[in-house]
Amino acid sequence: GQQVMQIPQYQHVQEGEDFTTYCNSSTTLSNIQWYKQRPGGHPVFLIQLVKSGEVKKQKRLTFQFGEAKKNSSLHITATQTTDVGTYFCAASRDSSYKLIFGSGTRLEVRP
Amino acid sequence: GAGVSQSPRYKVTKRGQDVALRCDPISGHVSLYWYRQALGQGPEFLTYFNYEAQQDKSGLPNDRFSAERPEGSISTLTIQRTEQRDSAMYRCASSRSTGQNTEAFFGQGTRLTVV
Fold it and tell me: What is the pLDDT of residues A32-43, one digit of tens each?
């Protein structure tokens, strides 16, 4: 079945350092979404990427969709303690509306 | 309502009992999803509704699990003859349209514990 692999599983950074999480699929994706889940909270939508090679920015966050639409990344510049949480990618393939989530990358930030 | 509402927030049940989990999506949202999330894991797809039609139930683990959305709004996920392995956070999400490319809004979830 469709699977979305996400790495790393966990990252612990010093405040001010950069952070990147990667999402990979063996199949071509129709679109990819990114969500953030704070400890004890629920997943909250951040952004959606649709086009091959697409790059979107939200303040210190940069999202990329690979040229082959099989991978994506989320990069945070100069992390802050408010960035703490688990970041999930979620993807759907072709005409399927089923949104499949990756296993997430948990980010901890040392102040 | 203002957001996706799930009830109960917490449910403790004895093994073998049936449970019904309720999801009230955002008003007007066409698509409704049920996910199960284990601690430290990503949401695992269970089933998807487009209005009242259950379009994909491939993620339901076995025939003890069922879901309905009879009027295209509120949905119920039912687990019959619960087992300890059913313990998890059950999350509902809704989105505005039937197509792809729309964000999913999640509820706070129902924490199910089977003892």
Answer: 999 999 999 999
8 Å CB contact of A101 and B44: yes
How many beta carbons lie within 10 A of that of residue B102, not counting itself? 20
Which value, in Å, is the radius of gyration of the alpha carbons in chain A? Answer: 13
For B39-69, the pLDDT digits (tens) are: 889 999 999 999 999 999 999 999 999 999 9
CB pairs under 8 A between A and B: 59
Q: Looking at the DSSP assignment, which residues form a beta bridge with residue A37?
A: A86
Whether residue B42 contacts residue B104, with contact meaning beta carbons closer than 8 Å, is answered with no
Contact state of A44 with B106 under an 8 Å Cβ cutoff: yes
Q: Are A91 and A33 in contact (CB under 8 A)?
A: yes
Question: Tokens for B104?
Answer: 């999913």
Is residue A97's pLDDT more than 80?
Answer: no
**Interchain CB distance below 8 Å, B103 and A104:** no
From A79's Cα to the closest Cα of chain B, the distance in A is 22
Chain B residues whose beta carbon lies within 8 Å of the beta carbon of residue A48: 101, 103
- The predicted-structure confidence for A71-88, as pLDDT tens digits, reads as follows 999 999 999 999 999 999
DSSP string, B9-69: SEEEE-TT--EEEEEE--TT--EEEEEEE-TTSPPEEEEEEETTEEEE-TT--STTEEEE-
